[in-house]
Every structure is written in structure tokens, then in C-alpha cells.
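Sat 14:20. Reprocessing the chain from the morning session after the first attempt stalled halfway. Input below, unchanged.
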Amino acid sequence: MVSAVREAIAAGELVPGEKLPPTRELAELAGVNHLTAVRVYRRLRELGLVTSQVGRGTFVRDSAPAVQPDWAEDDADWQRYVLPPITESAGDRAMDEMYRHSQARGLIPLSVGYPSAELFPFAEIQRAMSEGLEGVGSRALQYTDIAGLPELVDQVAALSAERGAPEDPSNILITTGARQALTLVARALLRPGDVAACESPSFMGVIESLKDTGARLMSVPVDSDGLDTNVLEQLLARQEIKVLALQTRCHNPTGVDLSPGRRAHLIELARRHGFFILEDGLYADLRFEGEDPGALRREAPSHVIYVDSFSKIVSGGLRVGWVASSGPVRDRLLRAKRTDDMHSPTLTQLALARFLAAGGYQDHLVRARDFYRERRDALHEGVTRHLGGLVAAELPGGGGHLWLTLGVSVDEGELMTEAVRNGVTFVPGSAVIPEPDVGTHMRLSYGFLDPEKLVEGARRLGRAIRAAGEQPAVSAGLPIA
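Finished this time. C-alpha cells:
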């Protein structure tokens, strides 16, 4: 379209001062979307061919520059008209904001769910990598098995047994982080038009992995006992699903566990209706209080596919996760891994295998629980002090986040803008809730920041909420639990 207008100007078909059609009319005439028409006029202005006047429209410039042939342009704007359209979700925007704000000066990024670099077992991993290189030589730089480096597969199987959920090594597939594991499972199970379900709220990566297959995503609410299996049963009465994705322990973002009664009910429903359960155990080891109920997979291995990672406790940069599965779905996952990236990096797998074999994980886990418990308490204290009467927030028994429900009427977009203006960020509820929801929610993460910054971030957030919102409907507001 840019070329067509350029040529019309060069040929004198469009004369100086002539008014061009409005962007919406141009979009209809050309059979493109409105955004494309806006971009066309913007590019023409950049080329000095047209000028726009607010309230009047877009006109051919009286002294348009000489039009150069298309081949002389050295820019990439043409790509906008070739690339397929994408629909940006709230989760996409939240992830972009999270990465952008993670190192931004002056901002306290309560949106960032990274682990703390202060706790990384750098010396231990450095030693494990050095020993691995000395012990295996050039094999550390070679391709390895699609299912994973055998030494690491054996260590993950041993760790599973220590957790009370033994796995045969042949059931384990090493992945490049849990995020890839979620994507591989979704791709292996779902096709466009299938129906999947997940918790509401849930992890952004789960929502994106399921939706990216072209499947229709249904949501099931979470309360203090985890996923509401009674609501799930009502859903199953009218809709067949292929997979349900959930976090049974230290749920992200609420921190709750699936109660024993609901665990049993969920397994019964999976067996009766014949669907897979995708169990995400990423935060399960980061438990501060209470007894670990264990992985759901050990109770129904043919129905439950288990995903986990070392990213939140050992290192996110190593990018090592895994999937445990049984039966024919195992071959589907291997195929998905092969067509995705063949295998995960050999050297990082080797280093982590040595780290685990030396007992480094269990020692590090003890330190991690104390370290992150202190940060959880600091953020909750800050929320209690600075957001009292504005939000409801349960103290999570584990994980990496606080889940807040606002007791004031606030537009989410305005609140995000006001928060950045006050030097703080959060993950909006719309990014982790698959379907529209009443009320305003936010996820705050505490692993990445020191306690002082967490408290200061809560103070800034309270100021932003008060600036963006109205007075509470009830003078006492909602309690902080």
C-alpha cells in the first residue's frame, strides 16, 4: 500500500494538497485491518510524502520529496504486511513488562518472579562443571540423548524417590526448563479445536502453552483448598476435555495446596472421564510450613504427567527441567522434544548431574527455604502495613508469590500506569486469569528482591492504589489474613 501511494504521487495521480481517505475507510477499500492502514500513513509521513492535521485528516504534502524507487529503501517496514497477525494477550503484555522492568533503574519490580542471585550455588556449580569437563572430556560438547543425559536422568529419578514419588528413569524426559516441558506436553496432547482446562488464577506459561495449540481453554476456580473439583465436575458434565493443568502444591500465584479430599475427587474424575492431568510441581519444594502432600502423579501415573524444574531453587540460567510420564504419551513427548530442539544443552546437564550426585541440592534447599521465607514475611508485612483496608491477602505456605484481591474499585490499566509512575510494578490479575473475572487482582513476587525493597515496594503500591482508586465500599475494608 505504501508503494501504491508513492507511485500515485510520483505519477501525479495524487496532487499536492489532496486529502487522503481516513484510515478506517482506507482499510475497508484495501481489505486490510485498521492497524495496517494506520501504519501505512505513518510510513508515508516518515517518507515526507504526506502530512496529518488533527481534526482535519491526512494530505499529500505541497512539496513532497522526490520519490525513490522501492529497491532503494533499506528498511524492514515491508515485513509488517507479510507477517501473519498475532493477538497479544494480557499474559503477553505482562511477560514483556516483567522482562523490561527486571533491571530498570528506579523501579521496584514486584512483578518479577526470578530467584535471587544472592542464593545461587555458584561455587558448587562451577566445581561441578569443572569436574564434569575433566571427567568426560569432549563428550561434554557433543550431542546427547533426546531424553536427556543419562547421568542427569538417573539423578532426577533418585530425587523423585527421595520425595516419595519413585520414577523409573525411562519415564523421565529432560527439557530446557519447565516452560518447554509445558509446551511439549500441550503440543503432544492437543490439536486445534480440542478443549483444555486450567486453574483460575494460574501460571502465565501454562495459559500460553495450552492456547498456542489452538485448543479452547476453560478455567476452574481456585480457593483455599486448591482447584474446585466440584466446579470441574460440573464442567465435565457438559464438556469433554483432553487435559487439565494445575499445581497441586504451593500453587502459583496463591501458594495453596490441593486438599486431600479434592486430590481423591480429581483422580476419580480423570479416570471416569478419561483426561490427562498436567501437574506442575515447580514450587513444591519451596515449602515454608506444613507437610508436603507429595506429587499427585504417584497416585495415578497413567493419568498424571508431571513437570518440574530446578529454575526457582538452583538456577534459572541453567534452563533444566523435566517431564515424567507413563504409557504411549511418553513416545509423543519424545517426538515433540526431537522436533523442537533435539535435546537440551549437554554441558549444563552434566554440571547439574554432578551437583545432584554430590548432595548439593538438599543442602541448598535448606538454605533456600529459610532465605525465601524471610522475604515472604517481609512482603506480607509490607502489604499489611501499607495496603491495610485496600486488599485481602493470605499468607502463602510456600512458593514465590502473594495473591492480592483489591477491596476498592480500580481500573486495572490505570492502576498499572499509576504503579509505574510511583516506581513499582506488579502482575495484573488479567494476565493469570484465563477468562474475564469480576474484581481486581494482582500477583506480587518476593524472591527477586531484598526485604527492604519488598517493604518499600508495598508502600509505593499502596500509594498507587489510593491514587487510582475510589474509597472502599465498606469503611473497614477487607482484612489482611
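DSSP finds 15 helices and 17 strands in the chain.
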